[in-house]
Amino acid sequence: MKQPKPTKHSSVVFNQLCKLIPVGMVRNLAVEYGVDKKSRTFSPWSHVVCLLYCQLTHCIGLNDLCDALRHHGAKLFTIRSATAPSRNGLSHANKTRNADMMEALFWQMLDIFRISSRALAPQVATKACRADSRRSFIVSTLRQSLWWPTAWTGRSTAVAKPPLNCTCV
């Protein structure tokens, strides 16, 4: 009897991670901070993708990053037409582009993940409570970890954690 073959997927994990960023968010931030005016071939979106790749793969330096992205150029292009940078282009972009755009991107994405975790936390807790009453400690730990404490964000707009109301015994 033949073993079933796994289905091939064209989207890799890095592509899925980049899909979490809303389509127009980087473009709108680039316009707001004036980053798009100076970019010709190395777009702000490509810059974000490049920096994410660098962070996730623990690249040692500029040459390592540019060589890896050029090697994976075809798969990189499937991520909303991102392009691999040249060494000089990436170095110049890192030197001249406003870092406030990346900070604003971070805070907006944090807000999006915070909202989605609030929507997910009660569902996860309710399902776990129904499944087994011995999992109450796991449920409370999970719910606490899904809420962003105000100390981590450093922002005054952070919402305090709601009280746990799990009915497990």
Describe this structure in words.
- The protein is an all-alpha fold and 169 residues long.
- It contains 9 helices and no strands.
- Helix 2 packs antiparallel against helix 7 and helix 7 (100-131) packs antiparallel against helix 8 (136-146).
- The longest helix has 32 residues, at 100-131.
Mean pLDDT: 76
Work out the count of structural domains: 2
Strand content: under 5%
Poorly predicted residue ranges: 128-169
Structural class: mainly alpha
Query: How far is the N terminus from the C terminus?
Result: 48 Å
* Total strands: 0
Tally the helices: what do you get? 9
Secondary-structure element pattern, one letter each = HHHHHHHHH
Overall outline: globular
Largest sheet: none
